[in-house]
Amino acid sequence: MGQLRCDPVGGRWVIVAAERGARPGDSRRGARVPKGGFCPFCEGNEDRTPPEILAYRNDGLPADGPGWRVRVVPNKYPALQSEGDPEQRDYGVYEVRNGIGAHEVFIESPKHVLSPTELPADDLKEVMWAYQDRMRELKNDKRLIYALVFKNVGESGGASVEHTHSQLICTPVMPKRVQEEMANCEEFFKSEGRCLLCEIVAHELRERERVIVESDRFVALAPYASRFPFEMWILPKGHASHFEETPRDALDEFAGVLHEALLRLDASLEQPPYNYLLHTGPLTRAPVDYYHWHVEVIPRVTSVAGFEWGTGFYINPVAPETAAECMRNVVLEEAREHALGRGGAL
Amino acid sequence: MGQLRCDPVGGRWVIVAAERGARPGDSRRGARVPKGGFCPFCEGNEDRTPPEILAYRNDGLPADGPGWRVRVVPNKYPALQSEGDPEQRDYGVYEVRNGIGAHEVFIESPKHVLSPTELPADDLKEVMWAYQDRMRELKNDKRLIYALVFKNVGESGGASVEHTHSQLICTPVMPKRVQEEMANCEEFFKSEGRCLLCEIVAHELRERERVIVESDRFVALAPYASRFPFEMWILPKGHASHFEETPRDALDEFAGVLHEALLRLDASLEQPPYNYLLHTGPLTRAPVDYYHWHVEVIPRVTSVAGFEWGTGFYINPVAPETAAECMRNVVLEEAREHALGRGGAL
Q1: Which residues pair with B163 in a beta bridge?
Q2: Which end of chain A is more exposed for a tag (fewer CB within 10 A), N or C?
Q3: Which of B14, B21, B171 sits opposite A226 (nearest CB)?
């Protein structure tokens, strides 16, 4: 089992998961499945993953066989594992815990496509349902504090399997980044009496120059202080702290906005590597007035180097206004057709 | 001029430096100087950089010509610039400042080598002196709060020029990471009456399993909660909050430990891309009891992906104890000979 170790200087936890790397010199993550080689995520290869936790499949078909649309399985190389005691121990000046938690993989399609944009927009709805279903289920394990849903696309985005998939890692401690966001939002709420992210949504819908996609209930925008070129945040317009509380019809609408935003990104930067991640309230807490869930999309087209590691600040060579305009100018129907063509649907 | 924009949700500043990228789609930093092509940092090409700020050269030789050993010039594509007013303005819910500061390049050798390990260890001493001289000088500009010294090595380490060099960026705001470290260290000092990093040094020198290099006054170790495989921190054993206060003979000793640590890293992972960065007290503050300067060396052999961006936590597939042992086991004389051979000195 791995360990969770706390760095008391930086105030962050590190998962030391020695079994994930083979040899010390061979520590590069990713590329476990060679490009164009055998794919354990394709329909028909269900026996090459651990048994499924959840799948949406046609009625009457047995588990761990074909006929599914979205399939959730434990990560074969988990960063954190479900068995064990989360007790915290001191080791001199340090803190350490057993590496308990959960690590799940969401296989987003039975077909071997590299991106959700290569599938019809409707196919993304059930992926969002699966995130929600798993988060609701994991709330029952009282050892777990937070569920982070994320997606890695492309080799330099950290993807080890190219077949379109996303992941969920549950931690027994609050993630530093979410804790910081919640603290900043709570402070704003206390002084201004409003949710900071509601305020940002209102500001951006007034200004419009950083808006990329908009629907009745959601908006995708280039954040004012974007860390990366073409960074996007997708948020509900109305206040909501917990993703898993989203009604299903709103979730379907969200899937549509996410799909369109990714299409506009893919068309603008020619399918860049990227990560997305879902920031939502912790599993252990009831909905709050001051925090607001959102998805952050991080294109990996600039390097993070000494300055960023040293400061926690970023240098962004593309103004968010320029990126938003570029993505708004994408001709959607053309982009959709090209992407479906890459996915083999046309 | 660029802008410094603050993200109120994450509490971080971003330098939006639109002039650093060429076109929106061409936003990849780095690789401005093609490999094996013309090198503006080599001796004889002094007219291809902005005029030097500082150089150590033989007596009587004119500035911006040959005969130097270490040369400091302004970055030709600065992230922050020295002219302007650092005044902070509100823009709706956001804060923004002019992108003022400083951005300097330390050319570490007149010879076209890729790494300080390809030069004799003694050559690194004057690089450390140059860091110190520049930091002392920049203290006089009262608009500047912090000077971050860092080094990017290798294309995936973010280096845009292969000729061995490091950089300094001065910011008019406190870096988030340093602020966090100082806050954690101050809290520890208040409750325990000791410097946290002094305590860590003492713990590691007792345990020894994470020690990589040791001299009279310095130690290089694999931190207990290393974020990355083969991460190293190099610290003075005795308490010291500000790098620029280090006496010159101690600084020379530090250069030797840094050189040996980098040699052991290069030999263990076959010259990996890496970053190093210097964390020290801010320019504006007198020495303090609770903070302790150190250099963090971050090998870039694992990818930072959705989990890391979402949580601020890291997954490290190599135990720091294993990495330290591997680096201790490097036969130093062999490694030195190979590195000097690569640099053309043998």
Answers
A1: none
A2: C
A3: B14
Query: Which of A224, A264, A290 is the best substitution to test chain B (most B C-beta atoms within 10 A)?
Result: A224
Average pLDDT over residues B117-136: 97
Is the Cβ pair B180, A14 closer than 8 Å? no
The answer to whether B236 contacts chain A (CB < 8 Å) is: no
| Pairwise pLDDT comparison (B23 vs A5), residue with the higher score | A5
CB B274 within 8 A of CB B300: yes
Q: Min CA distance, B165 vs chain A (Å)?
A: 12
Report how far Cα B299 is from the mean position of its chain's Cα atoms.
12
User: What is the predicted ipTM?
Assistant: 0.95
The model carries a pTM of 0.95
Q: Which amino acid is at B230?
A: F
Partner-chain residue, chosen from A176, A268, A313, that has the shortest CB–CB distance to B13:
A313
Three-state SS sequence of B31-70: CCCCCCCCCCCCCCCHHHCCCCCEEEECCCCCCCCCCEEE
* Rounded Cα distance, A325 and B208, in Å: 55
Identify the closest residue of chain A to B189 by CA–CA distance. Answer: A9
- Tell me the catalytic residues of B: 165
In the structure, what pLDDT confidence band is assigned to residue A30 with cuts at 50, 70 and 90?
Answer: very low
Domains of chain A in sequence order: 1-17+84-97 (no CATH), 39-77+101-342 (3.30.428.10)
What dihedral do alpha carbons A65, A71, A74, A79 form, nearest 10°? 150
**Contact residues, A window 103-142, toward B, CB-based 8 Å cutoff:** none
Instruction: For residues A330 and A261, give the distance between their C-alpha atoms in angstroms, rounded to a whole number.
Output: 10
Q: Where are the alpha helices (DSSP H) in chain B?
A: 123-138, 176-192, 196-207, 248-269, 306-311, 320-328, 332-342
pLDDT at B31: 41
Predicted local distance difference test score (pLDDT) of residue A315: 96
A 242-281 near B (Cβ less than 8 A): 268-270, 275-279
- Residue A88 pairs in a beta bridge with A97
CB contacts, 8 Å: B267 with chain A: none
Q: How far, CA to CA in Å, does B198 sit from each of A10, B195, B253?
A: 15, 5, 19
The pLDDT tens digits for A299-328 are 999 989 999 999 999 999 999 999 999 999
pLDDT digits (tens, 9 = 90+) for B91-115: 999 999 999 999 999 999 999 999 9
